[in-house]
Amino acid sequence: MIELLQHGAYLVHGSEIVEDTPEAAKKLQAMLGAAAPSKEEAAKGTIAYGILEAHNTSDSMDKLKIRFDKLTSHDITYVGIIQTARASGLEKFPMPYVLTNCHNSLCAVGGTINEDDHMFGLTCAKRYGGIYVPPHQAVIHQFAREMLACGGSMILGSDSHTRYGALGTMAMGEGGPELVKQLLNQTYDINMPGVVGVYMTGAPIPGVGPQDVALAIIGEVFKNGYVNNKVMEFVGPGVASLSADFRIGVDVMTTETTCLSSIWKTDETIREFYEIHGREQDYKELAPADVAYYDGMIKIDLSAIRPMIAMPFHPSNTYTIEEMNANLMDVLDDCEKKALVSLDGQVEFTLKDKVHDGKLYVEQGIIAGCAGGGFENLCAAADILKGRSIGPDEFTLSVYPASTPIFMELVKNGSVADLMAAGAIVKTAFCGPCFGAGDTPSNNSLSIRHSTRNFPNREGSKLQNGQIASVALMDARSIAATAANKGFLTPATDLDVEIKGKKYFFDSTIYENRVFDSKGIADPTVEIKMGPNIKDWPAMSPLPEHLILKVVSEIHDPVTTTDELIPSGETSSYRSNPLGLAEFTLSRKDPAYVGRAKEVQKAQKAIESGESPTEALPELQAVLDAVHAKYADVNESNMGVGSTIFAVKPGDGSAREQAASCQKVLGGWANIANEYATKRYRSNLINWGMLPFLIDGEDLPFANGDYIFVPDVRKAVEDKATKFTVYQVKDGALHEFTLSMGELTDDEREIILKGCLINYNRR
């Protein structure tokens, strides 16, 4: 089904793979009838290399400085981004910037604050020359597909699922500060990423959808890091067997592999997509060179893919549904073991009570968002459910078309009627079910969803209140088959149903009538509407000469998601209020964190106001006494006091910067980790002036509640140190150990020295 080559590989004429072994040169010469290009030259033959080269502003293809063509954000992230840019002197958006309103669309939680954010966005689009998409019109990524993507271009979004590679656009999801840099005419600085080929052959069998292919890939590559921070490039003859919607559905889920970005070869199918959307001029044919070198190769036989399910609590926890049903109790037992880690034993968890007469019963189905809400997915679900009923019992089914143009076409072709007649509820474009702000199931329920993630509490339940519901990811087709079977888990391949494949027609007048498009013209006379919950960022101090850190949380889960660092769901209503949102930091993983961090922060606030830090935090006196025995010159004028956390591998999942900024506004100065799950989380730490420390192994020389002294930290950052001599301060003595830090650009060091990106841009 899927094979991962253990070496790099050459792709010849787009159709033949030569693995990078000692015999490769001879094989290539025989195939080409001439000497093979060097590996370095062949690496320039990937689609990814060509796009990155065209957008690189540096004089080196090893050290990239990228300027993107367009930006996009939604209403969880754009307020903080624009507020940061405004604090740094923003006068005009220098490129098209789309502000969508698909996350905080429900104007219920928190009174007026969600709609206040929307009015902030609309007035900013007018003042700075942007594009504003009102609530319920489209989810962020569907609007980008329909209206923004262009062949050979690059888009940066403040959402982790910013992926438009199937349309020939290399897109990346990053934390908000990276968009701020683009708004201020700065660059996105990365080392040239590796490129992994995804070589497809064959064609999917009936009943298999894009989520099945995506989950099969994620299950193979997530745990081993095969594509971590690399670009996935989809090639091979199998690509031609996939519709545009199918490719898009696979592409958006590449985020869950932890890759940096994605790109696909394009063809007449993609040209037709642009034609349907009235943008044929934006199509560009993309293909690798006659000889292209890839740093890895994933071989996929599409015909061998079967309906998949990703069980709680990660998209990589995958099985075929057939395998799941054949080994039901064993799989559910494994889920319970994983729950002991993911849920920390806070609640009792079992799915074994879902087994009725040997079959797994689920209480809810959802087809939604940027992954599930596409036209073909919903047409297929309607075909499967036509003339059937989901039944009157616990099982419910909700469907969210990804945009109003899709919704309208589903109305016109009868799919909405078929879905509603079967008992489904059809709703407007909204991302809520993907992050816990809509359709939260009842306690102990299992929801099957064609959406992006199934992390703990991602469906909206609250461990701290004794609640637990869980999500399994599936394709829309098998969700519909399960619905037709009244909630008993069923792969779509088990049903004898013809999926007809209705033709899509796009009506642009919907957007022309409702979307505000400044056409890039800024109007500085427009007054920005600031709701009472929209707050400025608090002042942040530069990095001091010496740093005293208190460990205020210690997390030993194999991976810590951004949802666990700062929960999604109703907390998203406070995204525009840095201090208000910070109250929720680590609330699901370590509820005592906020109180501990605030207690330590008292000392730093005392230093900044010229008062005694030891009076504000009396326990600090013993720490200073121990420090002074070796470093007598450390005092209030040259030291800082803050908090830090340890996590094994933090930052998987969302791009939202608040996972780092909330720690910062609570006095966080650093993270300590064995590794960082994603480049974007590490970048968020840096952009908020936090030190991204690394330590080897989980046998730590410190524990939660201990103090750590980092002497001469400012000089070490200035001197480009990669190793830091630090001390555990315990029992009146200093105990030496070493922390390390990965590569930083000169700008990143300066950001850390200044204290945050805002301070850096005020220079």
Overview of this protein structure:
It holds the Pfam family Aconitase_C. Monomer. Residues 51-480 form the Aconitase/3-isopropylmalate dehydratase large subunit alpha/beta/alpha domain. By secondary structure, the protein is of the alpha/beta class. It folds into four domains: 2-65 and 193-304, Aconitase, Domain 2 (3-Layer(aba) Sandwich); 70-189, Aconitase, domain 3; 308-509, Aconitase, domain 3 (2-Layer Sandwich), CATH 3.30.499; 546-761, Alpha-Beta Barrel (Aconitase, domain 4), CATH 3.20.19.10. Helix content is 32%, strand content 20%. It has 29 helices and 34 strands. Strands 31-30-28-26-32-33-34 form a seven-stranded mixed beta sheet. Helix 5 links the parallel strand 6 (97-100) and strand 7. The longest helix is centred in the N-terminal third of the chain and has 16 residues, at 113-128. The N and C termini lie far apart (54 Å).
List the helices and strands and how they pair.
Elements lengths: L1 E3 L4 E4 L3 E4 L4 H9 L6 H5 L3 H9 L7 E4 L3 E4 L4 H10 L9 E4 L12 H16 L2 E3 L6 H8 L6 E4 L12 E4 L2 H8 L4 E4 L3 E7 L8 H12 L9 E5 L8 H9 L8 E4 L3 H9 L14 E4 L1 E6 L6 E3 L7 E3 H6 L1 H15 L12 E2 L2 E2 L3 E4 L1 H4 L2 H11 L10 E4 L4 H9 L2 H8 L2 E2 L5 H4 L10 E5 L19 E4 L2 H9 L24 H6 L1 E2 L28 E10 L4 E2 H4 L12 H5 L10 H16 L4 H4 L3 H9 L10 E9 L2 E3 L5 H8 L2 E6 L5 H9 L3 E4 L12 E4 L2 H6 L4 E8 L2 E8 L5 H9 L2 H5 L2
Parallel strand pairs: 5-6, 5-8, 6-7, 8-9, 11-12, 11-15, 12-13, 20-21, 20-23, 21-22, 23-24, 26-28, 27-29, 28-30, 30-31
Antiparallel strand pairs: 1-15, 2-3, 2-14, 4-10, 7-25, 16-17, 18-19, 26-32, 32-33, 33-34
Helix pairs in contact: 4-7, 8-9, 14-16, 14-18
Protein name: Hydratase
Keywords: Iron, Iron-sulfur, Metal-binding
Subunit structure: Monomer.
